[in-house]
Amino acid sequence: MKRAKKAQTEQIGILEDKVKPMIKQLQERVQTNYVTIKKQEEAYQDLLHTRKQIHEAMQVKDEILQEQLMRLQKDKTLLEQFKTSLRTKQDMNNPYSFQCQGID
Length: 104
Hints:
The protein has one helix at 2-93. The chain is mostly helical.
């Protein structure tokens, strides 16, 4: 019985010696995978942050473009009013303006 127990203990020792490197290798893989996953999570969070910044920048750009468009439309209206006013003044100062109507 002692022999059988001793043989069994030796077999367990041999198996443990074989399994320990495998366990260590698996632990290293788990650690490597954990680090990789953490880095991927950080990269994903950075990507989300960058995406948010781009979206905000595009909104600001759209607002600026809308303001510029409104200014251009206002400038166009003022320019047309000025041209009309200038023609009216020229017509009033030119006694022969009735002869030149329709010619620009």
